Please model this.
Amino acid sequence: MSGRAQLMWDEAVTGYDFGPGHPMDPVRLALTMRLVEAYGLDRGPDAVQVVAARAAGISTLRLVHREDYIDAVRKASADPKAADPAYGIGTEDDPAFAGMHEASALIAGQSVGAAEAVWRGEALHAVNFAGGLHHAMPGGAAGFCIYNDAALAVARLLELGAERVAYVDVDVHHGDGVQAAFWDDPRVLTISLHEHPRTLFPQTGWPEETGGAAAEGSAVNVALPAGTGDEGWLRAFHAVVPELLTAFRPDVLVTQHGADTHFEDPLAHLAVSLDAQRAVAAACHDLAHETAGGRWVALGGGGYAVVDVVPRSWTHLVAIAAGRPIEPTTPVPEEWRHEVYRRTRQGAPPRMTDGRGTGWRDFHGEGYDPADRLDQAVLATRRAVFPAHGLLP
Model:
């Protein structure tokens, strides 16, 4: 197997554009790629290999999505005025736009291409930070997501012969579309850490959601209290994810790294720093090596602080996947800061850190505090799913 990492990128993914004023501003993708380039991660003998995959075809999209929904997206793509809100398109969250099918299928194609490269041994790690559109359902768009590239990547791995795939989602929103796609499939373990459904869209992801009758314990949900910061977020991740992955032993680890857990994100209520996001990306890398033979597909996701947070968070992700991690105190390249101002008329952050520490109280070492809402959330998840994996809650 090649040890080289791949970065899936086609500039045309920035055509995934819901229009002015929509939170999902494609400038976040362009600025991330420019920051990757500014650090030279795409150059040199140990550089990440930049690859543009083909758009996902209809047969690939049908691995997850219903044919009538795909037809509805194509119709709205050709004529946005013809969008059918019954399919979730032409709505406030998911406005129809010309070329919507093509841009969405291209993003899906990058995630599927990443999965194929890792499965076939062409790369050990592959990243598609334009992906992670985890809310799209088999028959409808939702939450800024048209095609569910994350679910499609997992489905493609199964089609290629993977017997067990683990999906870990650390976006602030519940990974509901991926959970729904594999609710009854014991071959897929979905783990989502997200803000509690009482306070955030899509109002799902309760710890009691544990998978269908034929796949009990295959869905894992950690519902974090609003206001959770670095220490609690890292404590919850390490109290749930490593043990489950060790027990499940996936053939491939697929992770989703929505940057909207950040304290500056305008659409949610967690208080996580860039430094903690970097620490979780590094932990996912290590867990891929410890439990999945190193095979790791990493995706982007949400994130609406499009200048201050998203490009730095996902550049750290790419650097970790490439084996060239960036020291957090490193100054941001001046050329990128100029590019940020040119595109947005905003100032750029000066360094690759928020200046936070990344320590946490280990759930096993420090014990359970029954008065702590974070610990209550962790224990609720462990009680709901750990016994199904032969683990003590």
About this structure: The mean pLDDT is 97. The longest strand covers residues 188-195. The first helix runs from residue 27 to 38.
